Amino acid sequence: MAEKKLKVSFGPPDMNPWHEMDMDAPVGLQEIICKYDDITIENPEQFWRGME
After folding, report:
1. How many CB atoms sit inside 10 A of residue 41's CB?
2. Which of 2, 5, 18, 37 is the most exposed, having the fewest neighbouring CB atoms within 10 Å of its CB?
3. Which residues lie closer than 8 Å to 4 by C-beta, 6 or more apart?
4. How far apart are CA 30 and CA 26, in angstroms?
5. What is d(CA 50, CA 25) in angstroms, rounded to the nearest whole number?
6. What SS3 class is residue 45?
7. What is the pTM of this model?
8. What's residue 52's pLDDT?
9. What angle do CA 16, 34, 41 make, to 5 degrees?
10. Taking the CA of residue 39 as centre, how many other CA atoms within 13 Å lie in the half-sphere pointing to its CB?
11. Inter-residue contact 19 to 11 (CB < 8 Å)
12. How much is the pLDDT for 45?
């Protein structure tokens, strides 16, 4: 937090690299292509269920 940096992966982190963003750097635009598996969820109403 003190360094004002954020690390984020766009898409699944096991398929995409981590990007570091500096909150003190000038704002700009960058296109980031992310990879993901196109799958069908069998039970979509359970996707956001709470974990116990």
Report:
1. 8
2. 2
3. 22, 23, 24
4. 12
5. 37
6. helix
7. 0.58
8. 60
9. 95
10. 9
11. no
12. 82
- 22 token code pair: 């500096």
| Structure confidence by residue, pLDDT tens digits, 2-51 | 889 999 999 889 999 999 989 999 988 889 999 988 888 788 887 777 66
**Tokens 């109403």 identify what position?**
45
Apex CA 21: angle with CA 29 and CA 2, to 5°?
145
Place of tokens 């993901």: 36
- The residue length of the chain stands at 52
Q: Give the tokens for residue 9.
A: 């992966």
Residue 17 contacts by C-beta under 8 Å, 6 or more apart in sequence? 9
